[in-house]
Specification:
The complex is a heterodimer of chains A (186) and B (531).
Chain A (H helix, E strand, L loop, with lengths): L2 H9 L3 H22 L3 H17 L10 H19 L1 H4 L23 H10 L2 H12 L4 H8 L3 H32 L2
Helix pairs in contact in A: 1-2, 2-3, 2-4, 3-4, 7-9, 8-9
Chain B lengths: L4 H11 L7 H43 L5 H26 L5 H18 L19 E3 L3 H12 L1 H15 L8 H23 L2 H10 L1 H12 L21 E3 L1 H5 L4 H12 L13 E16 L38 E15 L4 E18 L2 E2 L3 E5 L3 E5 L2 E3 L5 E19 L8 E15 L2 E4 L4 E4 L7 E13 L7 E10 L14 E15 L1
Antiparallel strand pairs in B: 1-2, 3-4, 3-16, 4-5, 5-10, 6-9, 7-8, 9-13, 10-11, 11-14, 12-13, 14-15, 15-16
Helix pairs in contact in B: 3-4, 5-6, 6-7, 7-8, 7-9, 8-9
Chain lengths: 186, 531
C-alpha cells in the first residue's frame, strides 16, 4: 500500500481514504489499546480517540518513519492519557506499592497465544500493566517511561521487575494448566 | 534462554495481536471528523466577521467625524430597512400563491402580512431548497403536546370537525369563503403530501418519496396533479387562525428544518415523512447558553439629554467661569475657549450567559471590558507646578497641565471600563437560519482608569484628575442582531448597537460641571460557545 498517497488523500479530506487508513490499521491498533486497558469498551474508546488524533494531526506526519509506528505512538499516548484521566485507573496508577511481588530473573518460553498473553497482561495491576507494556512491548527505556508517567527511573525499573515476575508466574501456571489439559484429553 | 528473550517473545506475540473493532468506533471517528470540518468552516468565517466588524466600525467612525449621524436614527433606520424589506418580498410571495380559487386566496389574504412573511423563503435558503417550488415546501409543526393532540385529531377528521370549525371561523371573521369543504381538504392534504415529497427531494431521500407515492391512492392523485402544475407553487392552507383552540402553528420551510441543529428533529421528520406521525414539536432551546461578545464602533461625549447627541460639545469647564470682561476703551482680548470633543473609537470584549425563557425571549448578563475614547485638541504641555481651580471655590496643585492657547496637538481622552450588561432579547422573526433579535437593557460600568482632561476656565488650562469623574456609570443600550452560521456549533449574532450612559460623567457637587454623558454606537458580534 502506498502510504504517502493514502496520507495525501486523507489530508485532502477524502472520506474513502480516511476509511481505508482506518481499516488498514484499526485491528492492530485495537490490539495495542486492548493491552493498556481493562475492558474492550475502554479499548475502543481509546482507539476512537486515537484515530481522531491521527486524522487531526496527519499533517504532522512527514513520511520519514513508518506510518504504522507513528499511529502506534499516538495510540500509546492516547491510552496513557486515558488511564490518567479515567478515575477507574487512577488508583492503580499511583505506583505506591513497592515490594508487593517478588522479582524474577526467569526467561521462560512463552507458549501462549497472543490473545491469552494479552489477557494475562491486562490482569496485572494498572501500574504494572502500563510499565510492562511500555518497556517490554513498545521498547521504551525506563528513563523515557519515567518522563512519560511522571515517575522516576528507579520506580519504573522496580515496577517493571515486579510486573515481569508476576506475569512469568502466571504464564508458568497457565502453561502447566494447558499441559495438564493436553494429558487429560484422551 | 538468553536475557531479554522473554521480552522479545512477548513483543513478537503482541505485535501479532489483532482485534476487530466494532462499527461504532468508525462511526464515532467519522462524526468527529465531520464536526472538525464544520468547526474549520466556522473558523474560516471568523476573519470575515472580524473584517465586517472593522468595516462597520470604520464606516460608523468615518461617518461620525463629519456631521455626526445620530446613532439612534441609524438604529431606527436599520430597523426600518429590515422591515422595509418585508413588503418587497411579500408581493412576490403573494404572487406565488395560486389564484386558481380567488375565494381561497382572499382567505389567505385575510391573515395577510404576518402569515405570508412567515412563509416567505429566505434568500439563503434558495440553495438548499428544491430547485422548483421552494416556496411551497412547508411543514406544519406544533409547540405543545396539547397542540399535537389537537392537530392529530384534526388531521384524522379533516372532513368532519376541523374543516367545519375552519369554515365557522372564517365566516365568523366575516371573510367570504364559500368554497366547498372537500376542496379545502383536498388542497390541505395535497399540500402536506407535497411538502413531504419536496422535503424528501431536498434531503435526497427517494425512498420517502416512493413511500409517499404508494401510501395512499389520494397521494397518487395529488402527485399527478402536482406534475401538471409543477411550476405553480402552493401555500399550506392549515393555519392557526383558522383552527380555534390551537396555539399558533409554526410554519417552516424544508430549508428551515434542514438548518435545525437538533438531530432529534431529523428523526421526527423521518417519522413525519414515513407517515407515522402528523406533526412534531420544535426543539426547545437550552435554558442556559453562554458565549463571547465584542463591539467596535465610535464613542463621543454629549451634553443634555439623549436627544442632544449631535450637538457639538467642548471639554467641560469644571469652574464654569464667565468669559473675561472687556474693559471699556480697551480692545477685547480673545480668550481661549475649551476645545471641542470629537468622536474616538470604542472597543468592547467580554463574555455573557444567556437564559432562554422561550424560543423568542431570553435574558443575558455579561462581564466585559470597554475601552472608549474621544479626541480633543490642546496646547503645549507644561510640566510645572501650578494651581488649577474647580467648582466655585476649590483649587489644587497639579504638576502637569496643557495650555489652552494654540490648540495644535491632538489629545486622546481614554476611558477604561469594567461593565456588567444585562439585556433582554426578543426574537422578531421565526427564521431558524437568520433570526433577527431586538435587544435592550442596561449596563453598570465601573470606570477603572481615565486620562481625560478637565478644563479650568479661570486659568485657561487643561488638567487631569480622575477624582472628578463619577466612577460608577449606569447606562442603557439597545441593538438589533442578525443570526449568522446558525447551523454551526458556534452561531454568531451581529448587528448595530447603541449605548448611552445616563450618569453624569463628572461629579456635579464637586465641580461646576453641567452634565456630560458618554455614548457610543457600533457593531456588535456575539458568538455562542455553548449552543
Amino acid at each position: 500500500m502506498d502510504y504517502n498517497k493514502l496520507v495525501k488523500d486523507c489530508l485532502k479530506g477524502l472520506p474513502g481514504a480516511q476509511r481505508l487508513l482506518y481499516e488498514h490499521f484499526a485491528e492492530s491498533m485495537l490490539g495495542v489499546c486492548y493491552r493498556y486497558t481493562k475492558s474492550m469498551p475502554d479499548a475502543e474508546d481509546v482507539l476512537q480517540e486515537g484515530f481522531v488524533k491521527v486524522f487531526r494531526n496527519l499533517h504532522q506526519f512527514k513520511g520519514e518513519g513508518e506510518l504504522g509506528a507513528w499511529i502506534r505512538r499516538i495510540m500509546v499516548n492516547t491510552a496513557l492519557n486515558f488511564l490518567k484521566k479515567n478515575s477507574r485507573y487512577q488508583s492503580d496508577l499511583s505506583f505506591l506499592d513497592p515490594g508487593l511481588h517478588p522479582v524474577s530473573d526467569d526467561n521462560p518460553e512463552v507458549r501462549l497465544n497472543a490473545r491469552d498473553l494479552a489477557e494475562l497482561i491486562r490482569q496485572l495491576p494498572t501500574g504494572y500493566q502500563t510499565i510492562f507494556n511500555l518497556h517490554a512491548v513498545e521498547g521504551y527505556s525506563h528513563v523515557e517511561i519515567g518522563k512519560m508517567l511522571g515517575i522516576n527511573e528507579g520506580t519504573s525499573r522496580s515496577q517493571y521487575a515486579r510486573a515481569r515476575a508476576l506475569l512469568i508466574s502466571w504464564i508458568k501456571v497457565q502453561t502447566v494448566d494447558s499441559k495438564m489439559e493436553t494429558y487429560v484429553r484422551p | 534462554m538468553s536475557d531479554h528473550e522473554f521480552e522479545k517473545s512477548v513483543q513478537r506475540k503482541m505485535d501479532g495481536l489483532k482485534l476487530r473493532p466494532s462499527d461504532a468506533v468508525w462511526q464515532a471517528v467519522e462524526m468527529n471528523l465531520y464536526r472538525d470540518k464544520r468547526r474549520r468552516r466556522a473558523f474560516f468565517w471568523l476573519p470575515a466577521a472580524g473584517i465586517l466588524l472593522l468595516i462597520g466600525g470604520y464606516f460608523l467612525y468615518s461617518g461620525s467625524t463629519g456631521p455626526v449621524k445620530d446613532p439612534v436614527a441609524q438604529t431606527q433606520e436599520s430597523a426600518a430597512n429590515t422591515s422595509s424589506t418585508q413588503p418587497s418580498v411579500q408581493p412576490a410571495t403573494r404572487e406565488n400563491v395560486p389564484v386558481s380559487n380567488p375565494e381561497q386566496h382572499s382567505t389567505a389574504g385575510g391573515h395577510s402580512g404576518q402569515e405570508l412573511s412567515e412563509r416567505q423563503p429566505e434568500p439563503g435558503n434558495a440553495a438548499s431548497a428544491p430547485s422548483t417550488n421552494h416556496n411551497d415546501n412547508i411543514i406544519s409543526n406544533h409547540n405543545t403536546s396539547r397542540d399535537r393532540q389537537s392537530a392529530e385529531r384534526i388531521a384524522e377528521k379533516p372532513n368532519q370537525q376541523a374543516q367545519g370549525t375552519m369554515q365557522g371561523r372564517v365566516s365568523g371573521d366575516n371573510n367570504v369563503n364559500k368554497q366547498p369543504k372537500n376542496k379545502i381538504d383536498g388542497r390541505a392534504t395535497a399540500t402536506s403530501e407535497r411538502a413531504k415529497i419536496d422535503f424528501a427531494a431536498t434531503q435526497g431521500t427517494k425512498s420517502a418519496t416512493e413511500e409517499a407515492k404508494h401510501s395512499d391512492p389520494f397521494i397518487n392523485n395529488s402527485l399527478a396533479g402536482l406534475s401538471n402544475e409543477a411550476s405553480q407553487p402552493e401555500v399550506v392552507v392549515l393555519h392557526p387562525a383558522t383552527v380555534p383552540g390551537i396555539e399558533p402553528l409554526q410554519v417552516l420551510s424544508p430549508a428551515d428544518i434542514a438548518s435545525m441543529p437538533d438531530s432529534t428533529v431529523r428523526v421526527e421528520i423521518a417519522a413525519l415523512l414515513s407517515g407515522s406521525i402528523r406533526c412534531f414539536a420544535l426543539p426547545v432551546p437550552p435554558k442556559w447558553q453562554w458565549g463571547i461578545a465584542g463591539i467596535a464602533g465610535v464613542n463621543n461625549i454629549s451634553e443634555g439629554s439623549v436627544f442632544d447627541l449631535l450637538n457639538a460639545v467642548r471639554v467641560e469647564d469644571v469652574t464654569n467661569a464667565a468669559p473675561a470682561p472687556a474693559f471699556t476703551g480697551i480692545p477685547p482680548v480673545p480668550v481661549p475657549e475649551a476645545s471641542p470633543i470629537r468622536t474616538g473609537p470604542v472597543f468592547t470584549a467580554g463574555a455573557f450567559v444567556q437564559r432562554n425563557f422561550s424560543r423568542s425571549l431570553s435574558l443575558s448578563i455579561g462581564l466585559q471590558y470597554t475601552y472608549a475614547s474621544a479626541y480633543t485638541k490642546v496646547g503645549k504641555r507644561v510640566d510645572s507646578l501650578t494651581t488649577v481651580n474647580y467648582g466655585t471655590t476649590g483649587s489644587r496643585l497639579t504638576n502637569q497641565y496643557y495650555r489652552a492657547d494654540r490648540q495644535m496637538h491632538d489629545y486622546t481622552n481614554r476611558y477604561h471600563f469594567i461593565e456588567l450588561p444585562i439585556d433582554l432579547h426578543v426574537k422578531l422573526n421565526r427564521s431558524l437560519r437568520t433570526p433577527i433579535t431586538l435587544s435592550g437593557g442596561f449596563t453598570l460600568s465601573q470606570l477603572v482608569y481615565t486620562n481625560a482632561l478637565h478644563f479650568d476656565g479661570m486659568t485657561r488650562v487643561y488638567f487631569e484628575n480622575d477624582h472628578f469623574f463619577n466612577k460608577l456609570q449606569a447606562g442603557f443600550q439597545s441593538g438589533v442582531h442578525i443570526g449568522l452560521f446558525q447551523r454551526s456549533n458556534h452561531p454568531v449574532m451581529a448587528g448595530p448597537v447603541f449605548r448611552y450612559f445616563a450618569t453624569n460623567l463628572q461629579k456635579k457637587g464637586e465641580t461646576a460641571a453641567e452634565g456630560q454623558h458618554i455614548w457610543s454606537a457600533g457593531l456588535q458580534v456575539k458568538m455562542l460557545l455553548k449552543k
